[in-house]
Design brief:
Elements (H helix, E strand, L loop, with lengths): L1 E3 L6 E5 L1 H4 L6 E9 L7 E5 L2 E6 L4 E5 L2 E5 L3 E5 L5 E4 L4 E9 L5 H4 L24 E5 L2 H16 L4 H23 L5 H15 L6 H8 L3 H12 L3 H19 L4 H7 L5 H12 L12
Parallel strand pairs: 2-4
Antiparallel strand pairs: 1-7, 3-10, 5-8, 5-10, 6-7, 6-9, 8-11
């Protein structure tokens, strides 16, 4: 369950990267015991690194920016560095495994994996997620739990090749979370569905679009998805996609000397005549009349 929160008159603290992460191995894990007099709704923490949190036994609220998420025993969360976040709980202590890392530690491997639900788009520098989407939260399964315990043990013992073990295990953990996130699509709220569709379009507009494939990813029918999106946004998914493609084409015309036909296809259009008609209708000018950079 999500709800808005008034963020007026809050205190903010920043956790710096160098406090936890070494330059030659930017990873850290701890089992923290958080006190409610230090971690509470009146204080927000922002980090200079990514964080995976696993809460074994407690329940309460995870506050991220101006949104409140209900967490539960067995919750595992991935939090973006831009998030101003904290916890609110009733117990005197809340135990939590915190895995802190620099994305460069896993960047090469994650860039090559198949990501059918867009989980890894949160790691992109141009990520268009709204602030409230700066976190993934899901129910941990046994495989993820064993993996986190193994990472904690390796980091504590520092046996031979422990860094390689941890890096590969972290990659595996993120892949498992990605799969879990795909399953979660079947229980997304309306706002989450709309945000997901918009994010998908903005990151995949150059590719051939299929409403059927997109609806299957989310776990609802194409007809229902279309009605949901139109009712919420006042426009259709395909209209929004065309708008994104046209805005991209105009930007490329203004900032590059690429031939118009190449810009047409690079922006996701597959018909030059249709591109010209759509561009003229949207911007009241032909693509050839756009001011181009001086060569």
């Amino acid at each position: 369950m999500l709800k808005n929160l008034n963020t007026k008159d809050l205190a903010y603290r920043r956790w710096e990267r160098d406090r936890f992460l070494k330059k030659d191995f930017p990873f850290y894990i701890e089992l923290s015991k958080n006190r409610s007099d230090y971690i509470n709704k009146n204080i927000r923490f922002q980090r200079e690194f990514w964080e995976i949190s696993y809460i074994p036994d407690s329940s309460g609220e995870r506050i991220v920016n101006d949104r409140v998420y209900q967490y539960f025993p067995g919750a595992v969360m991935l939090t973006h560095p831009n998030a101003k976040a904290t916890y609110c709980f009733d117990e005197p202590l809340m135990e939590c495994y915190n895995l802190l890392f620099d994305f460069r530690l896993v960047e090469e491997e994650l860039s090559n994996i198949q990501d059918e639900f867009g989980f890894c788009s949160i790691f992109k520098e141009d990520c268009s997620f709204k602030e409230r989407d700066s976190m993934y939260m899901m129910k941990i399964d046994n495989e993820m739990k064993v993996l986190i315990h193994s990472i904690y043990r390796e980091f504590t013992r520092k046996d031979a090749n422990y860094r390689t073990f941890i890096r590969l295990s972290l990659i595996k953990l993120l892949i498992l979370m990605m799969r879990k996130s795909a399953e979660r699509g079947f229980s997304m709220t309306t706002d989450e569905i709309i945000d997901y569709v918009n994010n998908f379009l903005e990151h995949n507009f150059r590719e051939e679009f299929s409403l059927q494939r997109l609806s299957r990813r989310i776990g609802i029918s194409a007809c229902y998805l279309s009605k949901l999106y139109s009712k919420k946004n006042g426009t259709t998914i395909t209209a929004r996609l065309k708008q994104i493609r046209l805005e991209s084409a105009k930007s490329e015309l203004e900032h590059s000397n690429m031939p118009i036909i190449d810009i047409c296809y690079h922006s996701g259009f597959n018909d030059l005549s249709y591109f010209y008609r759509s561009f003229r209708k949207r911007f009241e000018m032909c693509p050839g009349n756009v001011s181009r950079p001086v060569k």
